[in-house]
Amino acid sequence: MKLARAFFARDSRLVAPDLLNKVLVAGDGRRGRIVEVEAYAEDDPAAHTYGGQTPRNASMFGPAGHLYVYRSYGIHWCANIVCAAVGSGAGVLLRALEPLDGLPLMRAARPLARSDRDLCRGPGRLSQAMGITGDDDGADLLARAARFRLLDDSTPPPADAHAHATPRIGISKAVDQPWRWIVPGNRFVSRG
DNA sequence: CGGGCGATACCCT
DNA sequence: GGGTATCGCCCGA
Predict the structure, then answer these.
(1) pTM of this prediction?
(2) pLDDT tens digits, A63-101
(3) Which nucleotide minimizes the distance between its C1' and the CA of A113?
(4) Domain coordinates in residue numbering, chain A
(5) How far lies A85's CA from each of A28, A41, A44, A148, in Å?
(6) Which residue is nearest to nucleotide B13 (CA to C1')?
(7) How far is CA A105 from the centre of its chain?
(8) CA of A47 and C1' of B13: distance in angstroms?
């Protein structure tokens, strides 16, 4: 079933752990279970929005439940889900998915992946596997004809799949905040 | 399967 | 012009 707007319109640090085990669905049938996320909050020195609104990060200041997609290291696309109230500049970075469906399409989208474990393990990888690009920046996950949607299907919700908090990865500021959540022991998490 | 390393182009200062 | 919310390749276990 589909998640309501109110689910996203909360503090990103509350939304992030709740996103674990939710299912990201592409219109062409590709599906993945979220197993790793990071929260970026309002007034968070590590957030792209910390210095204020620019053309690049504008969608992060928009309504909750939309995508904020940015280019990382000039090469990769990374996808966030916008959270909280309009103007907050907060969101949740999707860091890893467990591939559930549409594996042939994912493999075709990621010809360099050595194994299925590497299809969606990492924010750049999962965007490539699912087909998320800069064109999807600002897209509403709750729109009727959305290319990407988020479902509460939790196909098999494993018994041990509760959230575990750890420090965020790849940042240089606010490194001690434990705002990265993983499904403990899941082999599709980027770093155990 | 985990760690080290170099490449990449876009955006904002 | 500098820094970047990363990836793929290579190596050794």
Answers:
(1) 0.94
(2) 999 999 999 988 899 999 999 999 999 999 999 999 999
(3) C8
(4) 5-182
(5) 31, 11, 15, 21
(6) A51
(7) 19
(8) 17
